[in-house]
Amino acid sequence: MIRAIAASVLVWTAVGSVSTPQANDSTPHGLAVLPLFERTAEFDYDPPEPGSYELPALGRAGDGYVLDSTGAKRRLRDVLKGKITLFSPIYTLCGDANGCPLATSVLLDIFDASARDPDLARNLRLASLSFDPPRDTPEALAAYAAPLLAAARGGTKSDWVFLTAES
User: Fold this and answer.
1) Which of 20, 69, 96, 152 is least crowded, fewest Cβ atoms below 10 Å from its Cβ?
2) Contact present, 23 and 35 (Cβ < 8 Å)
3) Which of 41, 156, 162 is nearest to 103 (CA)?
4) How many C-beta atoms lie closer than 10 Å to residue 128's C-beta?
C-alpha cells in the first residue's frame, strides 16, 4: 500500500521562500530549523540556479486507502479532490532537522498564512502522509498534529490532514 501511494503521489511542493534561522533559533512555532544548505560531508550539493531546469508535468495521483488521524479510512482521491493540495510525506520521528521538521515548519507557516487570506483558506488543503505506519498510527498522528494545529494563530484556516496507511 505504501509503495503504491509513494509511487503515485510523489508531489513535493516547494513553496515561496523559507527563512533559515540558526540552529539554536526556532520558528515562531517553536520548531528548530537548521540553515537550509549547510555544507557537510553528507550534504555537498549545489542546487541548480532558479529557472535553469524544467519541472516534470504533474499528473494525477494514484488512488488507494489511507487512514486519517481519527482512524477513519478514506480514499486518497477524496482527500486530494476539490482543493489545491500541498502534499508532504513525513515521519513523525525524523532525526534530520532539514527533513520532516523543516517540511512541517514550512507547512505550518502556510497554514498560518491561510488564516490571513480567506481565499487561500477556502481553496487550500495541506496533507501530511506518514511513510511509517507501524509507528505513525492514527493516534500518533493525532498527538503529532495537536500542537501544530493549536500553535497556528488567526481565524479560519485551510484544511490540514494527517494521514497514514494500514500497512
Assistant:
1) 96
2) yes
3) 162
4) 25
Q: How far apart are CA 159 and CA 100, in angstroms?
A: 19
102 in Cβ contact with 29 (< 8 Å)? no
Chain position carrying cell 487570506: 117
Distance, in Å, from the CA atom of 63 to the CA atom of 78, rounded to the nearest integer, reads: 9
In DSSP terms, 74 is beta-bridged to 66
State the distance between the two ends of the chain, measured CA to CA, in whole angstroms. 6
For the chain, what is the largest distance between any 2 Cα atoms, rounded to a whole number of angstroms? 44
Taking the whole predicted model, whether its pTM rises above 0.70 is answered as no
Q: What is the CATH number of domain 1-14+64-167?
A: 3.40.30.10
Q: Where are the domains of the chain?
A: 1-14+64-167
Question: For every one of its 167 residues, what pLDDT tens digit does the chain have, with 9 covering 90 and above?
Answer: 333 333 333 333 333 333 333 334 444 444 444 444 466 776 666 777 888 988 788 777 678 999 999 999 999 989 988 999 988 888 888 777 777 788 888 888 888 888 888 888 899 999 999 989 999 999 999 999 998 888 766 667 888 999 999 88
